[in-house]
Amino acid sequence: MPNLTISVDSETLKRARIRALQEDTSVNALLGKFLQEYVGTTALRQQRKQALQALLSIAAEHTVDRGECTWKRADLYER
């Protein structure tokens, strides 16, 4: 597995190590998990963007004529 070198101030690293110990893990494991989620989020965002584009394309191809709207919003809720 490849190694990654990062720069972080000593106080941040100290606090990260303490928190990781409290959570029964390591800073290395936390960073690895973060990177996996980051990459997954990017892929998910791309899938959502493609789905939205497909939906907009379908909507543009299929128009609906609703005619003239003569009612007001309040009319919908009259009882």
Would you give an account of this structure?
This protein is elongated. The chain has a domain at 10-62. It has three helices and no strands. 0% of the residues are buried. With 79 residues, the chain is an all-alpha fold. The mean pLDDT is 89.
Structural descriptors:
single chain, 79 residues, mainly alpha, 3 helices
List the helices and strands and how they pair.
Blueprint: H1 10-22, H2 27-61, H3 73-76
Outline of the structure:
The chain is mainly alpha-helical and 79 residues long. It is 66% helix and 0% strand.
Give the helix proportion (percent range).
Answer: 55-70%
Percentage of residues in DSSP E strands: under 5%
N-to-C CA distance: 67 Å
Total DSSP helices: 3
Helix-strand topology string: HHH
Q: What is the average per-residue confidence, as pLDDT, rounded to a whole number?
A: 89
Largest sheet: none
The total count of strands amounts to: 0
Low-pLDDT stretches: none
Structural class: mainly alpha
| Overall spatial form | elongated
Radius of gyration: 26 Å
